[in-house]
Design a protein that fits this description.
With 265 residues, this protein is α+β, with helices and mostly antiparallel strands. It contains 8 helices and 16 strands. The termini are far apart.
């Protein structure tokens, strides 16, 4: 019952005013009184939290919690791509020549998602991975690769649910929701990290400084459950055989490997 109530409040309340009220409440001291029940309802692993549950002064602090050092080992293989988040792998596949991807039986446009023609052409016929974070997940986002940020931009405004029901029945949620897109140049080719908000605008906070990214290094966090979409250039990425959908995955675990160094600039 508690989980159902929180799901309604967190994932399905997306009006301008209701979202603003929920945002204000989650950051208020009053919300600390529901921290224990929230942790219980979503079975949060308290043993891996950097702080004790009673130390969180608001629901927002619990959402953006950090973990104890060493809790999430990072795959160190030079050619590996790791999960940037704790999540469920909801969908994997190949981006179509016309920029289309299929998610929960619906067709989405990478062109609409990126909103940038210059970046779009790199990813046609490449690979994509959809990673969904529920309210129970660790909400910090880390770099899946070593590389250099070449561009970062924001798109969208209002945000709707991005859980499996939102993806299936929503109106182009991955391409319409508020999102922050980071394009990274690696030794093997470009990767786009698309962080998709699931609630109010500004539910995505960027934390990294400078343009150099280290695999496993923190780059941002979600204030609420959301989704990360990874896009890869054609022919540079191979999915690990262990990856299937749906699949629970932890930040730092291998998603796949780069196949070869890409010579194009």
């Amino acid at each position: 019952m508690l989980q159902m109530l929180y799901r309604v409040l967190i994932e399905l309340t997306n009006g301008r005013w209701s979202s603003a009220i929920l945002k204000r409440f989650s950051r208020s001291g009053i919300s600390r009184y529901i921290v224990p029940s929230f942790a219980k309802a979503y079975h949060l692993n308290q043993s891996e939290m950097e702080r004790e549950l009673k130390a969180y002064r608001s629901l927002h602090e619990l959402f953006v919690r950090t973990l104890k050092k060493g809790t999430r080992p990072i795959d160190k293989s030079t050619d590996s791509v790791v999960s940037p988040v704790d999540a469920v792998v909801e969908e994997v596949g190949t981006i179509g020549e016309t920029s289309e991807i299929k998610v929960k039986g619906k067709i989405y446009s990478i062109e609409e998602m990126l909103g940038d023609q210059e970046s779009l052409h790199k990813y046609l016929n490449g690979a994509y991975i959809i990673l969904y974070l529920s309210p129970s997940h660790y909400h910090r986002i880390h770099s899946p690769v070593d590389g250099t940020v070449t561009k970062q931009w924001m798109m969208g405004s209002k945000s709707y649910p991005v859980n499996k029901w939102g993806l299936k029945y929503g109106v182009r949620t991955l391409a319409k929701n508020y999102r922050v897109i980071t394009e990274v140049k690696t030794l093997f080719g470009h990767v786009a990290i698309v962080k998709v908000g699931a609630m109010f605008v500004n539910s995505i906070e960027t934390t990294h400084q400078g343009s150099t990214l280290t695999k496993g290094g923190e780059i941002a966090y979600f204030s609420f459950g959301s989704t990360v979409v990874l896009l890869f250039e054609k022919g540079v990425f191979q999915m690990d055989p262990s990856i299937h959908t749906p699949k629970d995955i932890k930040m730092g675990e291998k998603l796949g490997t780069f196949t070869d160094k890409k010579k194009s600039p």
